[in-house]
Amino acid sequence: MSFISYAQNFEDVMLWRALKYVENGFYIDVGANDPSIDSVTKAFYERGWHGINIEPLPSHHADLLAERPRDINLQCAAGAFSGEIEIWDCDIRGWATASVNVAAQHIANGQTGIYHKVPVYRLSEICDLYVTGEIHFLKIDVEGFERSVIEGADFFRFRPWILVIEATLPNSIEEIHYEWEIDVLSADYLLAYADGLNRFYVANEHTELLSSLRYPPNVFDKFMRFEQLTSEIKAQQADADARQAESKAQQAEANARQAEATARQAEAAAQQAESKFKLAEARCKHAEAKLNAIYLSRSWRATHWVRWLSYQASALSEQGVTARFKSIGKRLRNVCLLAHLRRSSINAQLARSSASIHLALDMYVLGQGVKTGVYRVCDELFQRLANRSEFDARYLIRSSTRAGSLKYLDEHDMRGPQLPEDVQNPSNAVDILLSPFGVAPQSWRNDRDVRHAHIIYDLIAVRRPEYFTAEASSEVHQIIESLTTETLIFAISEYTKQDLLNYRKDLSPEQITVIPLAAGEQFSPCADSVKIDAVRTRYSIPMGAPYILSLATLEIRKNLNRVVESYVLYMNENPSSELYLVLAGMSGWKLDSLNQSILSSGRWRHRIILTGFVEDRDLSALYSGALCFIYLSQFEGFGLPPLEAMACGTPVICSNNSSLPEVVGSAGVLIDADDVASAVASLTAIVTQPGLRLRLSEQGLERAKLFTWEKCELVVLEALRDFSLRKPSTSFQDGLVLE
Question: Where are the alpha helices (DSSP H) in 510-611?
Fold first, then answer.
C-alpha cells in the first residue's frame, strides 16, 4: 500500500523513510495547526505513533482534541521564556504568528487578523512535563518564531533523533536559518538535508539515519499525496456513478420499450373489450326495457300481495315458525356486529398512531466526538432510548457536527428520520426534543408545539467561571437561561437539582428529574495480569511498580496540582517507597498550576506519568492495576471516575464537595479537596493497611452496583412518557428569576 503524505512539502515522506522501522514512535509538533491538512504527523498517527501537539489557536486545538485523542494536545505557544504572549491569527490558515515583524508584513500586504493572548512555555519545560522516553522527531513551524522556540529548548537533555525546522521567511524563499542554526549545530546535530523550505538535522548519536535523508522524495518512496488519493477516490466514484447512470439509462430504455409494447397490447385489448361492452350494453338495455314494461303493467301490480304471501308460506314451510324468526334476528345481529367492528378498527388505528412518542435526540455532543463525561452520558442513554418501543426516534443534525453525527448513527445502526437544525415547523415530525447540551436551534424554539427536555450536568461555569474559557462559560449561561417553566429538566445529581433551583427560582422541583448516572458494564475488576501488563506497557507504567491513579481531563477544576503536591509530600515522607503517580486524561485548559506542581516535584518528577487520553478498552485494567484512585476535584455535577474506580474494586480517596458524596457515600475516603495533609494521611493508610484496602474495595463494589444505566433509562423513560401526556401551560413563560 502506498504511503499517504499529508505534509505540505513531503516532510513526512522523508521522515518515514528514515524512521519507518520504529514502532509506536513519539513526536513533538510545535505549531501543529490542523490535525490533517499539511500535517507532518498525521501519517505517523495513523500508523500507531503519538506525541505532543503544541498549538495556540483555539479552533485548531479543538480539532486536535477531537481527532487526536492519543496525543497530548497543548493550547499554548513555545518560546524562549514562560509567561504570556500575543499570537496574531491571520485570516489565511497557517499564517498565524507570534513574530511582530511577520505580522506587520502580513498586515502591510492587506491581510487581516486578530490577536489572541496565550500562555507560552519553554520547550524544555514542556518536555519536563510530558516526555518520558525517546523523541523520534521534532518539527518546528512557527512562521518566523523558530529562533525563540530553539532558545527555549534543551537539546542536551532532550535529544530528538531528527529535527525538522522551517528555514525561510513565511511565504518566501528567503532563507533565515543563519539566525538560529549555530544553536542547533553546537548541540551536536548534523545538517542532513534541505528541501527549500525546511532543514533536517540528525543527532550525532544517530548518524545511521543520514543516508536515509540524502535524496529528496522520489518514486522509490512509493507515496501518494492525500489530495491525489482524494481526487482518485472522487474520480473512481464519479466513474462508478457514470456507469451506474448508464446502466440505469439502458434499463430505463428497455423498460420504455417494454412499456410501449404493453401499451399497444393493452390498447388492442381495450378496443376489443369496448366492442364487447357496447354489444352487452345494447342487450342489457333491451332486457331492461322489457322488464320495466312488465313492472309497469297492471297485472304485475295487481298480483304483488299474492307473490309476497307465496314467499312467506314457502319460507315457513321450509324453516318452521321459530327458525324463521331466528333467521331474521341473526340478520339483525350481523348488521350490529359489523357496525361495532368498523368502529373498533377505527379506534385501534387511532391508538396505534398515537402509541409512540416522536422523540428527537440532539446529536450535538456525539457529533463532536470528544469523549468527555457528557459524551459518555449521551453514548449510553441515546442508544437505549432509540431502541425503546415507546419512542419513535428521530435525530436533530446540526450543520457544525453533521459529519460526526452521521458517522455515529451509522456505526451504531441508529435508524430514523434526520432533521436539520433549520427545519421549519419541526412539530410536524417531533413531539419532544431531548437536548444533551447546547441551546436548541431557533426554529425549534419558535415552534410552540415542540416540547423541550434538557439534561443539566452542573452550574460550574455559572458559579465558577474562572474554571473555564469565556466561550465555554457563555455557552453554559445560555443553556441555563434557555430553560422555561415548561421545560422537562434532567439533573444528573440531587446536588445539581438544588443548585439549579437556587439559581433559577422560577423553576419548580416537579419539573426537574434526577437521573443518577452509572459506570457501565465494561467497568469491573480485571484479574487478567496479561491485560494489566499490556496497559502498563502502552502507557509507560513500569512493570510491577505500585501506582496511584487520577483520571480526568487535565484542567484547572480537577485540582490535579493538589494531587501532585500530595504525592510529592508522601514520597518525601517515604523516600524508600516504589510508588508512582499516574495522571490519565486528555489535555484541557488553564494548566499553569498543574505544570508548576510537576516542575516543582524535584527528584520525584520521573515517577509522575502523564498518559494522555486513555482508550475505553484500557480503563478497567488501568483502574484495577492501581493501588488506589485519588480524585480531588473542586466541583462536580456527578463524578463518573470515582464510580468507575469503585466498579473495578479500586479504593477511592475523593473530595467531599458538590455531588461527590452522593456518588461515593461511605464506600470511599472523603476529604477536603485542598487538604493535602488529609490526602497524605489517607494515602498512607491505604498503602500500609491491606485490610483497609480490601474493605474499601468490597464496599466500593457494592456501592457501584446501586448505579446502573438500566435504572437511568427507566427514569428517563417514565419522565418523558408523563411529560408527553401533560397538557402544556396556556401561558408559555420565558421570564427569568435569577439568584
Answer: 529-538, 560-573, 592-599
Task: Say whether both 423 and 563 belong to one domain.
Answer: no
Same domain, 331 and 382: no
545 and 498 assigned to the same domain: no
Same domain, 502 and 604: no
Residues 6+ apart with CB under 8 A from 33: 39, 55, 57, 60, 93, 94, 141
Which one of 330, 353, 376 terminates a domain? 353
Question: Phi/psi of residue 484, each to 5°?
Answer: -120, 175
More confident residue, 162 or 324: 162
Distance, CA of 73 to CA of 62 (rounded, Å): 9
3-state DSSP of 325-345? HHHHHHHHHHHHHHHHHHHHH
Q: Is the pLDDT of residue 349 over 50?
A: no
Please state, as a whole number, how many other Cβ atoms lie within 10 Å of the Cβ of residue 621.
Answer: 23
- List CB contacts of 589: < 8 A, sequence separation 6 or more: 75, 468, 469, 555, 556
338 with 375, same domain: the answer is no
Look at residue 716 and tell me if it is in a domain. no
Q: Does residue 141 lie within any of the structural domains?
A: yes
Count CA within 13 A, CB hemisphere, residue 503: 17
Task: Clarify whether residues 320 and 419 are in a common domain.
Answer: no
- CATH number of residue 417's parent domain: 3.40.50.2000
- Which residues touch 336 (CB under 8 Å, ≥6 apart)? none
Distances (CA, A) of 668 to 12, 478, 515, 585, 607: 49, 36, 22, 22, 25
DSSP state of 504: B
Least confident of 529-543, 589-603, 659-673: 589-603
Its pTM stands at: 0.58
Alpha helices in 397-493 (DSSP H): 402-411, 442-446, 460-463, 470-482
Burial of 470 (0-12, 13-18, 19+ CB in 10 A): exposed
Do 339 and 372 belong to one domain? no
Beta strands in 571-657 (DSSP E): 580-584, 608-612, 628-631, 652-655
Grid cell digits, residue 273: 373489450
**Tens-place pLDDT, residues 631-650:** 999 888 888 999 999 999 99
Cell, residue 98: 507570534
Element (H, E) at 302: helix 298-302
Domain holding 337, by residue range, is 253-353
227 domain residue, yes or no = no
DSSP string, 480-503: HHH--TT-EEEESSHHHHHHHHHH
- The CATH number given to whatever domain includes residue 51 is 3.40.50.150
Lowest model confidence (mean pLDDT) among 68-77, 97-106, 552-561, 664-673: 97-106
Is 326's pLDDT higher than 70? no
Same domain, 414 and 470: yes
The average pLDDT across 168-190 equals 88
Residue with cell 376489443: 272
Q: What is the pLDDT of residues 94-111, one digit of tens each?
A: 667 766 677 677 677 777
Number of folded domains that form the chain: 4
Diameter of the chain by CA atoms? 135
pLDDT of residue 303: 64
